[in-house]
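Help: read this over?
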Amino acid sequence: MASLVVLECDVDNSGAGQPNGITNKLQTLKLRQQESRRVAKARLSQQTNALDLDQGPMELAGSAMPIVRRSSDLRSQMAGKAMQAPVAPSEEFIGSQVYRTPFEEAGSRMSGFTAPDSRPTTSSSARSISSRPSGSRPATSSSNRGGPVARITSQSAERPGSAASMGSLQSQDLAPYEDLGPFLNPDAVLQTVLNSLAAANVAKRLELDWQAQNEAIQDARRLVQHHPEVVEPNLHPLMGVLLPAVDALRSQTAKDALSLLLDMVQAFGRALDPEVEAIVAALVKKAGEMSTAGRETFLAMEASNVLSVMTDLLSVSRVAAALIACSGHKAAPVKYKAALHLDGCLQGTNGQRLSGAQGMLAKVFKAAVQLLDEGREETRVYAKRVLWATAQLSSVTEPGGFDRMLKQLTNEDKRKKIAEFTSSSAGCPPPPNKYTAGATMARSAR
């Protein structure tokens, strides 16, 4: 309860012996004292009446008109809100608000900042805010979905089967491309995608607009999903500007490019056969990337996954020929991945398809013999598996063909060694443990 402290003074009302000026001042002070007491009593009376009516705090209902709510009503409303679900704001309220991302808020606060001895600077986000009329919401489009925060996040949930552990960058995911509708003008969007990716490939490191590059890849995924008839005639130019993104320094860009490649392989299948050589070369290089601890990175696992799907859906003879070319790479991890996926080309129905291609088994045999001399144990194990599968397939398709391949070897010791384990009753050598492979790679790196 507010109270007013009034200074009381003992004043001699007689004014005897005092000059007229002093007497007038004392009378004025006494009148003010009486007025102050009257005001204090009036305020005290108002507060007492408010307590008798059990009135509570005041809340502004509008810009100027206050309303008074009873404290009992407020208590009942608070109890009701605890039992009710939150109510969404009305459309009129939403339309009158201006929504800004944290980056835009920071830009608006920094727009008026002036450093000492420098001209006033305004950020790009602040300029975009000032150019937008008050009371309007920022427009959203396919090229600006989710704001600057959502554009840097991961889309690991977009592709079915992707591991959640690979989504370390996802803080606010973009909407999956399956949930986004088709484009009104897909031909124009495709041309924009080609131009954006081509510009990103030739841009210098500091001048690269990686957000535009990521948005172009996401738009390409939507095109593959909703407009495959537009993308299929342009597979060659699209692949030419997409493959450099697989080797991008920014991991999010590389992962999006790998996801797009997987979508294209699943959507177009054998239509990508003319591009197999370039795709396999880029994927095997990415699959051979190792961390400092000697283990596969999540991008390497994504690239290996795309290679496995390519082996099943595309021409296995073309994939095997591209892997044979990669088996002569200088890097040991790349040779290891080439041997691993070459073994996949010979397993199950893939091996039956490959054995039907004339001369392919002989080429696979020569590449596997070369890989037997590798220093990495896992590469040698996969080379033995390839030779064992080649011997089994040759005995079915061309009896005696594997023996003729062995006779072409000039090294007698290697010939006997290959003949021994390919004819052994133990069967095909088991694949190496992935953890053992990682430890071996770490030891070789040290």
About this structure: The CA atoms of residues 377 and 440 lie 8 Å apart. The radius of gyration is 39 Å. The mean pLDDT is 73. The chain is about 60% helix and 0% strand.
